[in-house]
Amino acid sequence: MKFVFKYTIFILLAGVLFTACEREMATTSITEFYDAEQQNLKRKYEVLQKDTSQKHGIYQSFHENGQLKMTVAYVKNKKNGLGRIYDEAGKKIEEAQFKNNQLNGNRKIFDRENGALVIEETYMDNEFEGPYTSYFPNGQIKQEGQYINGAMNELWKYYYASGQLKEAVHFSNNVEDGPYQAWHENGQLKAEGRYENENREGVWKVYHSNGVLEEEATYKNDWEEGLIEVFDSTGTKIKAITYKNGRVQNLERF
User: Fold this and answer.
1) Calpha distance 97→105 (Å, rounded)
2) Smallest Cα–Cα separation from 207: which of 187, 179, 177, 178?
3) Residue pair 132/122 in contact by the 8 Å Cβ criterion
């Protein structure tokens, strides 16, 4: 009997709490129009009855031609969940994930002409965090890399529209820092060297599209230093230049 009594009390309390919660979250619909005749809908959304300044529920806005412009969900006046933006023709141009009114998760940007994916990026609390990829109109990857703490870090790759790798660059806090390589569109190595805090350092080599060495140079704090030799596409030396602190000291032609 005691058990039944306690269970009944629990059910009653739960019902009271649920009802209170329902009242707390009760909403009313708001509609706004472009025209005085209220024929051309501008936006519609839900607000809390208890505080009509707080959006709560699905929010939609419209272009003047009637096409949907934006849709997103609000929870107590903060964007949460998937939001989408459309142009006047009805094409989706952006979609993004929100949490507590901030970008959190995946965001995609689409081409306004053909609707193709242009950029795919990741956020955490409104800051870049995680993988980033951009695309050519043909769908091939144009650029890909990683954001850490809102900055470009680690290896980033750049491509030709054909899909051939164009550059591979290491970054640290948005600046080039580490090994660098570049390729001709035919796949032959084009250049190789190393960056230190955005400056070229040490030996850098540049190659012709047939793979033959074109130039070999030494850099110090992004300035040419010492002997630089230049070759034509057959491997024949055509110039030798001596630098000091980035200034030409001697030039020989062959």
Assistant:
1) 5
2) 187
3) yes
Distances 21 to 17, 53, 184 between C-alpha atoms, Å: 6, 19, 64
**Which pTM does this prediction carry?**
0.84
Express each pLDDT in 87-125 by its tens digit. 999 999 999 999 999 999 999 999 999 999 999 999 999
Q: Where do the H-state alpha helices sit in the chain?
A: 2-25
141 Cβ contact partners less than 8 Å away, ≥ 6 residues apart: 133, 134, 135, 157, 159, 163
Residue 2, token pair as written in the block: 């005691």
> Rounded distance, CA 27 to CA 94, Å?
28
Q: Would you say 216 and 224 are in contact if contact means Cβ atoms under 8 Å apart?
A: no
Distances (CA, A) of 153 to 55, 118, 180, 207, 241: 38, 21, 14, 27, 35
Phi, psi angles (nearest 5°) of residue 138 = -85, 0
**Alpha carbon 242 to its chain's center:** 43
Beta-bridge partners for 58: 73
Nearest to 183 by CA among 166, 208, 158, 162: 166
CB within 8 Å of 230: residues ≥ 6 apart: 214, 215, 237, 238, 239, 240, 241
